[in-house]
Amino acid sequence: MEENHSESEKGIWKLSVDGSSCITGSGAGLVLTSPDGWTLEYALRFKFKATNNEEEWEALIAGLTIAKHLEVRKIEASSDSQLVVGLTNGEYCHAPVLLRQH
């Protein structure tokens, strides 16, 4: 992995989340990457029916919780859910946070 020194110097962590559902259940995955390039990968399985947006929210919450426990100070999160990104960025409300749709 090629390291971007400007991002590493800024100490920005990356969080990428994605949800998935099928007949047998639902879940989500998340990847948390440090500024130095090491990654933590998690797979979440839910014991409840969830929509794709709910799965994305659950993954985002789990990722941010892990980051908090790691005492992460700067994080940039991404999701393919337009609703999750829009709500988090304040496009649909007034609580802006940096989150990009991928």
Q: What is the CA-atom radius of gyration, in angstroms?
A: 14 Å
Point out poorly predicted stretches: none
Give the beta-strand count: 5
At the fourth level of CATH, the homologous superfamily is: Ribonuclease H-like superfamily/Ribonuclease H
Estimate what percentage of residues fall within beta strands.
35-45%
Number of helices: 3
**Secondary-structure element order, N to C:** HEEEHEHE
Spatial order of strands in the largest sheet: 3-2-1-4-5
How does the major sheet shape up? 5 strands, mixed
Coarse structural class: alpha/beta
Q: Per CATH, what is the topology? A: Nucleotidyltransferase, domain 5
CATH class: Alpha Beta
What number of domains? 1
List the keywords.
globular; Nucleotidyltransferase, domain 5; five-stranded mixed β-sheet; alpha/beta; 102 residues; 31% helix
What would you note in describing this structure?
The chain starts with a helix and ends with a strand. The chain is α/β, with parallel strands linked by helices. The chain is 31% helix and 36% strand. A five-stranded mixed β-sheet has the order 3-2-1-4-5. It has helices spanning 5-10, 52-69, 82-89, and strands at residues 12-22, 25-33, 39-46, 74-79, 99-101. It has a single domain (5-101), classed as 2-Layer Sandwich (Nucleotidyltransferase, domain 5), CATH 3.30.420. InterPro entries: RNaseH-like_sf, RNaseH_domain, RNaseH_sf.
